[in-house]
Amino acid sequence: MRYLFESNVKTSKVFLLIHIFLCLICSLHALDTLKPGKRLHSDETLISAGGVFELGFFTPSKSNSEHLGIWFRNDRNQKPVWVALREISFIKSTGFLTIQYDGNLVISDILTVTNIVNSGALATSNETSAKILDTGNLILMERGKTIWQSFDYPTDTLLPGMSLGWFNMNTDRFRMRHLTSWLIPSNPNKGDYSLGIDPSNMTKFNVWRKDAYQQIGFWDGRVFRFFFQPLLANHYNISFESNTNDSYLTFNKAGSNILSWFVLESDGTIKEFNMVGEEISSVNHSLCDATLPRNSTGCLVLTPMTCKDEDYFTDIRGFLPNSMVVIWPASSGTGDCELMCRSNCSCVGYVFLVDDGTGCKLYYGNKDDLLKNIGRGNNTVFVRGDASKSDHQKKRNLLLIIIVPLTSLTLIILTKFLYTFPRIKGSPGGMEEVQTSLASQLRTSNDQNREGVFEFSINKDHELPLLSFSSGKLQGHNIAVKRLSKHSRQGLTEFKNELQLLYRVQHRNLVKLLGCCIEQEEKILIYEYMANTSLDSFIFDPVKRSLLDWRKRKHIIEGIAQGLLYLHKYSRLRIVHRDLKTSNILLDNHMNPKISDFGLARILFENECQTKTMRVAGTYGYMSPEYAVHGLYSIKSDVFSFGVILLEIVSGRKNATFDVPNQSLNLLGYAWDTWNGGRCMELMDPSMDASCSVDDIMLCIQVGLLCVQESAGDRPTMSDVVSMFSNERMNLPKPKQPACYTILKPADGSISQNLVTISVVEAR
């Protein structure tokens, strides 16, 4: 009996040890999976089954915020290869990852701010789990099926198993998958550089920086070839697939025990990594043209040049470096190329494409890099200014010897002259007489219903500067002037209105009125100077439109929305602009938008939702239907105009002159047609393919269509619009058919192309 008892005890111990061992294995295996109801906190991580990758929260250097990311477990620096919701950060040690009640993977913090990680493919049930794989791919599974994966949303790193390119092109699930650099090495927000397939030739692989690009490789029909020499190219392979719906490159491991991957650095450098065992090595690949020295300064460096080399061009035999080249169509030959290049001081040289005679190659890089190619090619290259570097330098030095002393002497004379000359010169009757005359004129109103509303008082508005006609600068700064024609009677009302109204409102997205001039027959308004003129001069220009990447366009859209929100809700006066259009959106030197031209603006009283005018004024293509037909205007009239502008910014095309062959649709109708057909990306301006966010584009098109709905009551307010832009995951209503769905033709069948303000249309 003793031996039997001892045997049973030993057997029990063995089974206990086996049970503990099996539980330990199960618990280790569970480290790669997050299940509903569980939380992954800032001090915890998930580790892939083979111990290759780790998922958790990380804090960039010199930062107090944290992000969710994935990194190689063997990497001592723990540089993330993927970052979730990279534009969103959390206070350090406060964030956690969980699967919420509806099955979606979310990141939250102590403030209960919830952000859905898998917003591109939402769960339909709560039977989900998240798992980190040995490939570095984070997947969300629903009932055993993968419904979302991080590989579909790469950041700056190309890992084996990833694909980059264009997907679902003929469906409403269109996606462009590419790499985007970090903003700086310590900030994972989106940076200036993007890497992916060229939209115009999908066998090419490019890196973009704003409007410039550098081709780094291509598919030759059999294999993929880099322009630079990869360190261990035989340890991986790249395949290419193209059909009617998808065109993409897939990066795969070649069966070796060496693991390779690529990173697009924040400075545009492509870094190739290789891991053998636990050792990681790397090599940098320059984006410079392979025929140029590796220390060339012309690689996607957008340093604007001044027109120091004049506006003439001399020809050389050579070729253009591949970096910083933009290709544009030319309708009549080399003259078009010269015109386009001459219009932009940053364009250093050009080549006319003689082979097919259809376009120009415009070079925006460093002139020194261009001149190094003299005699090294057979193309005729036209270079801005003197193509001889040495001769040019001699002339420049000679001019400096002559000009510098002369300029110094001139400045001394001008300084003395300006010091003794009065800054503001009044009219013959003195400044007091000018102010009295101005006040008298501005008290007069043609609108009897609003008599006294804009009463101008010297006591209330004494701070408005009154300048003389001879003043060309205001305290040493450039100014912009709006001058009323001496023979114009109609414009006097608008002049008074703008002066009385605009000086009472101040906002960073409204143009600032600096002063006015009333001197004899002169009536002039003085504004802050806008270095980049108006929005329409960019988005409708075939060359300059490429300077507006999606980040700039989105910044402009949000700025216009904020300016309108201020006018409608937060200013001292509730103002309806009534003539909002792209030419009335001015851009400063930082491309900040400012709403201008308040000559037609009107005030709504607190108890007014809308009002009626017998004098309809506005611009064809931007006026809401209730205003154009019945003279009824409200804040929703401006919302309609904003919707038109929004769709014009996305598409780069004018509503009033939009033309589609064999169709009578205007831009609004075309946007509505593509939206219903699931072809929204057809509306996108092709010049910004490499920089756009598909989700942003879809959001803007939907908001634009909501703003241009037929009924004013269906349109959102600008407060609603701003909320839609700031909370991209909110459920937006489905837009109804827009107003002015087709091109409006007069009785004689002609369409006016005159886009100036209409101010004499009588309402029916």
C-alpha termini separation:
113 Å
Low-confidence runs of at least 5 consecutive residues: 1-7, 23-30, 289-299, 301-306, 390-397, 417-463, 743-764
Which fold does the CATH topology of the largest domain refer to?
Answer: Transferase(Phosphotransferase), domain 1
Give the helix/strand class: alpha+beta
Domain unit count: 6
CATH superfamily of the largest domain: Transferase(Phosphotransferase) domain 1
Biggest pleated sheet: 5 strands, antiparallel
- Count of DSSP H/I helices: 13
Subcellular location: Cell membrane
Domain Bulb-type lectin: 31-153
Enzyme class: transferase
Domain Protein kinase: 368-730
Topology:
Blueprint: H1 2-29, E1 33-34, E2 39-41, E3 45-47, E4 53-58, E5 65-72, E6 82-83, E7 90-91, E8 96-99, E9 105-108, E10 115-116, E11 128-132, E12 138-142, E13 145-149, E14 157-158, E15 163-167, E16 175-177, E17 179-184, E18 187-197, E19 204-209, E20 212-219, E21 224-226, E22 236-242, E23 247-253, E24 258-264, E25 270-276, E26 279-285, E27 313-318, E28 325-329, H2 334-342, E29 349-352, E30 359-363, H3 367-371, E31 379-384, H4 389-420, H5 431-442, E32 479-483, H6 491-502, E33 513-519, E34 522-528, H7 536-539, H8 550-570, E35 574-576, E36 585-587, E37 593-595, E38 602-604, E39 610-612, E40 615-618, H9 625-630, E41 632-634, H10 635-651, H11 667-676, H12 694-707, H13 718-726, E42 758-762
Antiparallel strand pairs: 1-11, 2-8, 3-4, 4-5, 5-6, 5-7, 8-9, 9-10, 11-12, 12-13, 14-24, 15-16, 15-23, 17-18, 18-19, 19-20, 20-21, 22-23, 24-25, 25-26, 27-31, 28-30, 29-30, 29-31, 32-34, 33-34, 35-38, 36-37, 39-41, 40-42
Helix pairs in contact: 8-10, 8-13, 10-12
